[in-house]
Every structure is written in C-alpha cells, then in structure tokens.
Amino acid sequence: xxxxxxxxxxxxxxxxxxxxxxxxxxxxxxxxxxxxxxxxxxxxxxxxxxxxxxxxxxxxxxxxxxxxxxxxxxxxxxx
Length: 79
What we know:
Largest sheet: none
Low-confidence stretches: none
Number of helices: 3
Distance between the termini: 20 Å
Structural class: mainly alpha
Shape: elongated
Mean pLDDT: 94
Helix content: over 70%
Radius of gyration: 16 Å
Order of helices and strands: HHH
C-alpha cells in the first residue's frame, strides 16, 4: 500500500515539476525522445515536449490504477 502511495506522490511531483518548469525543457525532451524511439514513434518537437510529457504521466497513472483496480476486483471475487 505504501509503495502505491509513494508511486503516486512521485509521479504527481514530477508532473508539478514539469508544469512549473523546475525540470528543464531539454531534459524532458531528451527523455521523451528516448521513450518515443524505443517504441518506434516520432519524437515531438521541443515546443510540445512538456505537454506530451504530461500526457505520458497521465497515461501511466491511468494504466497503473486500472491494473490495480482489476487486481483488487479479481482477488475479491475469488473469495
């Protein structure tokens, strides 16, 4: 349970750091280029790096929470 809370707090802090420009745009763009090249899609331009990073963060949160919800649902139905 604590790991889930820590994960959410760290992801939200990363998002706040990107929004408030504490995290440099170049760093965000570099990480996005690595992620996009790994999965084989085009990298976003530097002007859209922050917006795309926030979309990725939101997607990660939705996927992780969805998997946890399904795990709890399946585990509770086996009782």
